[in-house]
Every structure is written in structure tokens, then in C-alpha cells.
Amino acid sequence: KVPGEKDTQKVVVDLSDQEEEKVELKESENLASGDQHRTAAVGEICEEGLHVLEGLAASGLRSIRFALEVPGLRSVVANDASAPAVDFIRRNVQLNGVAHLVQPSQADARMLMYQHQKVSERFDVIDLDPYGSPARFLDAAVQAVSEGGLLCVTCTDMAVLAGKSRETCYSKYGAMALKSRACHEMALRIVLHSLDLHANCYQRFVVPLLSVSADFYVRVFVRVFTSPAKVKASASKQALVFQCVGCGAFHLQRLGKASRVPSDR
């Protein structure tokens, strides 16, 4: 449960194949019990639903799939800095009949997210899928996502994250990648480390939901929360990795250890 979330006006989402039958069943149950919950359908505007941002939308394919496949949406902003790309977004939105849900936008993704830092204007879901590193977008993203909101980040610079250029990795993500058989796992941990560092600057922290390494890219899904107390414990999640150049064995040295202070101090 997200802090500040109201108990009323809940939205029930059904992702099963037999959607129509279950929607009718749930609606009859709600009417019988007098509950205020209602079931959201795909393609309709849900006033209590999710506000989604695809910061680097290109042709708008993913935003259109959100509108066509995900129920419970309030709006989807398909943004791109390129004018031709935004023209493609408008055409694709019209062709797929989702103009009531998808809003084309031409702006710098960072400036757009910085303009939505107010709690009432934040996005519930932010999806960032750039060419190369997303490092320059992370500071704005962790501020523009709502409390408990979902942040989806893709990194296609696997060579840097896997240890080919350690100096570049440090400049972008604040960590040195090591060449090892676990380089893909280390790449995921480096991205999560960078996200957490950016969030900590604003008394926020990330909770990983899913981390994926596939082909030439990594993709992470995290929720962002605000808690100064838990931010202080973030150092206990980080460690230095010492690896043997011969056998490949490694040792972890934690940067900190979380401990409970006695109440009488």
C-alpha cells in the first residue's frame, strides 16, 4: 500500500483471457456487496488510473501498446525531442484509434520530467529506453515519478557496463565494472546502484522489482519511495568488489552496516 493512498475508489484490473466474463461477474459481485470498486477495461479512460510517460518514444509503439493492452490508464504521454518522430507518433496514434489516451509531446525528456516534480503532477510510470546510456535522464526521472511509482530503465551500452571501458562506466554510473563471468549480473547491479544514488539525493530510494539482461542490453524495473530514514541505510546495500585476476574469486567489502541504535541514547 502506497502512503497516502485512499481506501476508496479502488480500480480493479483484470488481465486474464476471459476478461468479459470476469468483468460481468465482478460487477455483479460489487453491486451485491455495495462496494465502490469498479473494473477498468482496456481502451477506456480511468480517472483514478495511471499517468504514464514514455520519455523517448520514437514512433510511439510502446505508448500505443500501453493504450491497447493495459487497463486502468488515465493518460499516456508519448514524448520525443525529434519533430519527425512526433509526427510519426501522431499518425500512429490516429491509425490505432488511441488519441483519447495517448498524448504526443515534443520536448526534451529531462525538461519535461523536471516540470513534473510537484507531487500532484508526477507520473505513476516512467519508461526510459534511450540509445546508449540513460545516465543523463536519471536525475530528472527519480524526481518526476510518484510515491511508489514505477520506473523502467533500459541501458544498451552493455560493453561499458561489462567492463570494456571502466573510466566511461565510472563517469556515467559512478562505478567501475570488472571483466568476469558474472559481468551481466554486475551490469544490472551497477544500474541499480546508480538509480539509488540519484534517488538518495532527494531523500528517496528504489526497490527493485525485476532486472533483465538480454542480448546487448539490460532493463530494470524499480519502485521509488520517499523515506529519509531508509535513505540513511542505503550505504549498507553497497560494497566494493575485490576480484582475483587469476582464479576469478571475489570478496565483498561493505561500505556500511545497518544497526539499530538503543533507545536510551
TrEMBL record:
<keyword id="KW-0808">Transferase</keyword>
<protein>
    <recommendedName>
        <fullName>tRNA (guanine(26)-N(2))-dimethyltransferase</fullName>
        <ecNumber>2.1.1.216</ecNumber>
    </recommendedName>
</protein>
<keyword id="KW-0694">RNA-binding</keyword>
<feature type="region of interest" description="Disordered">
    <location>
        <begin position="1"/>
        <end position="36"/>
    </location>
</feature>
<dbReference type="InterPro" id="IPR029063">
    <property type="entry name" value="SAM-dependent_MTases_sf"/>
</dbReference>
<keyword id="KW-0489">Methyltransferase</keyword>
<keyword id="KW-0819">tRNA processing</keyword>
<dbReference type="Pfam" id="PF02005">
    <property type="entry name" value="TRM"/>
</dbReference>
<keyword id="KW-0949">S-adenosyl-L-methionine</keyword>
<dbReference type="GO" id="GO:0008168">
    <property type="term" value="F:methyltransferase activity"/>
</dbReference>
<comment type="similarity">
    <text>Belongs to the class I-like SAM-binding methyltransferase superfamily. Trm1 family.</text>
</comment>
<dbReference type="InterPro" id="IPR002905">
    <property type="entry name" value="Trm1"/>
</dbReference>
<dbReference type="GO" id="GO:0032259">
    <property type="term" value="P:methylation"/>
</dbReference>
<keyword id="KW-0820">tRNA-binding</keyword>
